[in-house]
Write a structure and sequence with these properties.
The chain is mainly α. It contains five helices and two strands; from the N terminus they run ααααβαβ. Helix 5 links the parallel strand 1 and strand 2. The two termini are 18 Å apart.
């Protein structure tokens, strides 16, 4: 990405999403050795207890256990919807979205190379052809002008 100004020695200014600015600040602090991060991943005691409870019950899958269905009910309620569907990962979510939209053979799905491969592979799984478009220089997103 090119800077918005070309003054020698000037700091580069790039508009960012709020979470990106926070991430950049954290990276700058890490470079300055001013931030110490704990081990990753970190699981709180209540999270560990919940996992142990499920494992101890022997009901560790969707069909025999209740945790996933309870999550779906709670999430749907939080969204003000009648139902929600929990999936294993984002790749399955992309594939399901394309199913819901009726995407199939001979369709084209516009995506960008600046993403995880699942954005294109979900289209291929549906028999569609991924079409790679450029991203907007300032936002890093697809826009009507870049498609």
């Amino acid at each position: 990405m090119r800077p918005h100004h070309s003054t020698p020695g000037a700091r580069r200014v790039v508009p960012m999403m709020p979470w990106t600015a926070a991430f950049v600040s954290a990276c700058e602090a890490m470079r300055a050795n001013t931030v110490a991060f704990g081990p990753w991943p970190h699981h709180a005691a209540d999270e560990l207890a919940a996992v142990q409870r499920v494992l101890a019950s022997g009901r560790t899958n969707y069909w025999t256990g209740e945790e996933a269905r309870a999550f779906e009910r709670e999430y749907a309620a939080a969204l003000g919807r009648r139902r929600a569907v929990a999936l294993h990962n984002g790749t399955l979510a992309l594939e399901l979205a394309l199913v819901a939209l009726g995407v199939g053979p001979d369709d084209e799905v516009i995506t960008t190379a600046r993403t995880f491969i699942a954005s294109a592979s979900a289209a291929v799984v549906r028999g569609a052809r991924p079409v790679i478009a450029d991203v907007d220089r300032d936002s890093g997103n697809l826009t009507s002008a870049t498609v």
